[in-house]
Specification:
Layout lengths: L5 H65 L1
Length: 71
């Protein structure tokens, strides 16, 4: 995970525990989880909109090419 070993992760967890305390840690984790969920949802929505736009342009190009062949 990010090139970190077990000792580094334990040290980071210990420092976080010192800063926030054990009572704030679950609240911090919940907030981080919500933020990640919202980010993934926004990313998926943006991807869907992009794909719709690409599909629309492709359909218009196909229709224009078909019209050119008829004339």
């Amino acid at each position: 995970m990010f090139g970190l070993g077990g000792q580094e992760l334990l040290l980071i967890l210990f420092v976080v525990l010192l800063f926030f305390g054990p009572s704030k840690l679950p609240e911090l984790a919940r907030g981080l989880g919500k933020g990640m969920r919202e980010f993934k949802k926004a990313q998926a929505d943006l991807e869907n909109e992009f794909n719709k736009a690409v599909d629309t342009v492709a359909l218009k190009d196909d229709a224009g090419a078909a019209a050119d062949k008829k004339t």
